[in-house]
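Per reviewer request, we include the raw input and output of the structure prediction for the construct analysed in the revised manuscript.
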Amino acid sequence: MHDEQSRRNLQALTRRHFFGQTSQFGIGAAALAMLSGQRVSAATPKPVGPDHPAKAKSVIFLFMAGAPSQLDLFDYKPLLNKYDGQPVPEDVTKGERFAFIKGTPKLLGSPHSFQRYGQSGAELSSLIPHTAKIADDIAIVKSMFTTQFNHSPAQIFMNSGHQIPGRPSMGAWLQYGLGSENADLPGFVVLLSGQNQPDGGKSCWGSGFLPTVYQGVEFRRQGDPVLFLSDPEGIDRERRRRTLNLLKGLNEAHFGEVGDPEIETRINSYELAFRMQSSVPELTDLSKESAAIHEMYGTSPGKPSFANNCLMARRLVERGVRFVQLYHRGWDTHGASNNEDIVNKLSFLCNQTDRAAAALVTDLKQRGLLDSTIVVWGGEFGRTPMNEARSGSKFLGRDHHPRAFTMWMAGGGIKPGVTIGKTDDLGYNIAEDPVSVHDLHATILHLMGIDHTKLTYKFQGREFRLTDVEGELIRKALA
């Protein structure tokens, strides 16, 4: 009788879980796993582990959501300036789909100046003078491309290797593969700045069909970094501990009856939150940093900003956090107004981010942490070499461009002071060393000690991986 009741409970639970998941993601990931008889353990499962010596142990991904214009920051094209305002050659764009450009587009030169910096001779825009100072510490990849040309699917693709929600993000895969080095903090932390959440939403840092214990933990910009971190009024720490012990017992009993893996995740979350009550207040108190550090980053403790998040990222990797992702939204510079053009808006965004991003690399280096930390900077795709001129707008702006864009990397195992790949004279197509999103993921996993073809997870009868069925190492980026 008891076994029959347990079976009914499990059937009811899996049905509820299925519809709950399908309403949010379009697939009933965990429920389908249970229905197929797959056992998923979420209570701090044993990591898969590295399969070769790692060059790095942490990743900080500075994600510029909205797609920064590579042609105004990294990829200078004198020919664009020479033929500025002229119709683009018909053979270049014949049969091309654009997100918003209508009719015959006209070429758009950059209104910003460029010059070469450092021993590497990297050619960079006047908009990013601080990045120019670390030109010899970074590898600039000018030949990135993606398969997606709209923001939401492109952001999800850049983060999970697939354009449709439901796949695990790179941070979740690394958690699954390597685990965390700090039991008192999440192994995957997300920090937001700019205009709210990215278009791809929380799918960008979700765990997909992996147990939810691996998903990114978003630290809030104001108040407690994590909800309910503080004890309620009148509840001391000892009473909180007794309460959690009772909840743990009830949850374990419930798990014994229905076998839902998300119950184990809930237990783990409660315990981690209790430990975080001691670790997080010290972690998030940026006021304890020196005046020199605040000057370097441009931070203002207590005020939400990209600079504060960069400093927080350094403090997180110091404490063993595996993957830290910073999203700064607002880089969508179509030129429909002066609030989203490549003159005023792009300058504003660079003022918000350039100093702190460069300071992060410099700070990690001076503390001996850069050798063990990979820093990645970039967005979901690039911008067109043509002016969008939406509805006849006179403001300068560029449409979405998945064919070619720029990202940079630094740190653990990355060759410093190199430029990889190049685009044609108009910056429209890649001319040398194309690098896909899956190539980027494969390279990061490799530097973390993981062969991207071996880090897999069986779901619905198929072995899935971050790089799907593709991915080659960016050999020229490896030190």
